[in-house]
Amino acid sequence: MRKIFSGILYGIFFIFAGILFISCIMLIINTARKHNTEYKQIEAVIIDEKGETDNARYEMIDTQVSSETLPGYATSELKYGYSVLDSESKRYLYNEIGEKIYSVSDKKDDNGHYRIARLRVAGDRLSEFDIREVVNAYIYDNPHIFWLENLFGYAYVGDDTITEFYSVISADECEDCIELFNKKIGEMVSGIDAGLSEYEREKILHDRLLTRCRYKSGIKSSRDGWQYFSAYGAIVTGEAVCEGYAKSMQILLSKAGIPCLTIKGEGDGVFHMWNVVELGDSWYHVDPTWDDNEKDSLISYEYFNLDSNNINKNHRISEDVKTVLSAENSADVDTNARYNFFVPLCTSMDMNYYNTEGVFINTFDEESDIRVIKAMVEKAKNEENYFPIKFGQAMKYSDYINGLFYDSPHKYYYYIDHANERLDDSHKISKDNISVLKNEDNMTLRVKIVFEENKNIDKS
User: Staple partner for 310: which of 59, 74, 282, 306, CB 3.0–4.6 Å?
Assistant: First the structure.
């Protein structure tokens, strides 16, 4: 009788324990996906065709955006946009924009714009598409030029093309903003000392950007605020849409000697922008916007260093500009087409977050237990925030999740118990308020590490 009674109590205990385990787990099934709801190409206006004389007053901005790479790292300045330009006139205009970009009018013109010095391309009537291609190439290569307005004007005088560009702010405002921009970038890249691996540099700057910036919802075009589409918005004001995230990632990684470019396309069917980075001899896709899950205060790594096959599951890459220009009939060229200047083929997953930092579980056996507990101890001692797991193919995804959290012996809690036996009091892991991020498509799981005594250490 006593054995029966003990058995009943034992069963009740495990039922209660199971409920407690379940109640402590918050499963985040999908990372919140954020993207622009509308995209507008750089606008063009016809200016006075007699506009050979420029009467605007310009001020030369003394302070320039710092282009220096951190000590110990090679310069990673890339000019893929410039290299695609297929005529001397286009390349001349590109270089002239770079020469005049720091010369801004002190007052708005009659149309309400701060003008950047007017430029002339002699002996060539560049089309609207040609000029737009040059501007896109310049922005693509120079994401730090945040004050260039999403607008240009043009006219023809004989065989010459007259162009003018505009700043979103005055010369005085621009100088103040550049000083603040340089300061904030300096703060964000501080401590990226020589000797860190490319992966380590990339991850630190990825995390700092996502800690600094939050996605600005409800923004449809630059008319809702130029800063949200710029690196200035992401780095200085801390609010941006995908363009701001991608441009900031390009700037920060370039500072740390890592080649990084932006990619235009679609995410879940609407306009989106993200990055490609070169680590070693391989290129990878990284989407900082979709890795920013501020709702649950988690930095996601679901889009951190993916190959082309994986990014194409929910991203569509826009065409290469050469493909757009290859239309047999020039009249068929879509002047509003979205395009990229360089799209590398990404074939490796070696530097993917889960492949680099995750612990692998194929079956719940003794060998796996030893490996997982060892990894958990190391991450706790290093005061890391997350415990990533990559599953094999021996079981279904749901079986792995159930084995870790729901079915006896509740392996994840077993791992914590055994890890805590090897940890000092300041690094013991709590079993309360566990939150996880699941990705069944990629067979991965990431658990947020919470330390006992409400000690959740943030290394970002």
Answer: 306
Token readout for 257 is 């000697």
**Among 32-41, 256-265, 294-303, 404-413, which stretch is predicted with the lowest mean pLDDT?**
32-41
Q: Which pLDDT tens digit goes with each residue over 204-262?
A: 999 999 999 999 988 877 788 999 999 999 999 999 999 999 999 999 999 999 999 99
pTM of structure: 0.88
Q: Report the pLDDT value the prediction gives residue 298, as an integer from 0 to 100.
A: 74
Number of Cα atoms under 13 Å in the Cβ half of residue 314 = 15
pLDDT in tens, 345-356: 999 999 999 999
Which amino acid would we find at residue 130?
D
Q: Which residues contact 218 (CB under 8 A, 6 or more apart)?
A: 224
What pLDDT is attached to residue 50? 58
* Residue with the larger pLDDT of the pair 326 and 112: 112
Q: What type of residue is 378?
A: E
